């Protein structure tokens, strides 16, 4: 699932419907990096409205998968597209 240079592409069920997560995967030893993290609606929705709770739940599920795969740290980076601080690059790093 997490191979260096491969694309991470996974669907998560949330209370707002299924959400497809896409990212570029980089493996640096025991550190997993998911760059250009993107969320897409998996169904025929015109737009996807994810709240903080749904976003954190998806990130928690990815952390569990990464830990089970033997990684010790996870970094996720993405561009904000919401109304506040649009375009800012967000980088989150967590120990697993």
Shape: globular
How are helices and strands ordered from N to C? Answer: EEEHEE
How would you write the strand order of the largest sheet?
Answer: 1-2-3-4-5
**Based on DSSP secondary structure assignment, what is the total number of beta strands?**
5
Q: So, CATH architecture?
A: 3-Layer(aba) Sandwich
- Which percent band covers the strand fraction? over 45%
> How many domain modules?
1
Q: Quickly name the level 1 CATH class.
A: Alpha Beta
Low-confidence stretches: none
Distance between the termini: 17 Å
Estimate percent helicity: 10-25%
Q: From the 3D structure, determine the CATH topology.
A: Aminopeptidase
Walkthrough of the structure:
This protein has 1 helix and 5 strands, in the order βββαββ. The chain is globular and about 40 Å long. The protein has one helix at 52-68, and strands at residues 7-14, 17-28, 31-41, 73-79, 89-95. It has one domain (7-95): Aminopeptidase, CATH 3.40.630. It is of the alpha+beta class and 96 residues long. The model has no long low-confidence stretch (mean pLDDT 86). The protein starts with 6 loop residues before the first strand and ends with a strand. 18% of the residues lie in helices and 47% in strands. Strands 1-2-3-4-5 form a 5-stranded mixed beta sheet, with helices on one face.
Element layout with pairings:
Layout: E1 7-14, E2 17-28, E3 31-41, H1 52-68, E4 73-79, E5 89-95
Short key terms for the protein model shown above:
5-stranded mixed beta sheet; 1 helix; 96 residues; alpha+beta; Aminopeptidase
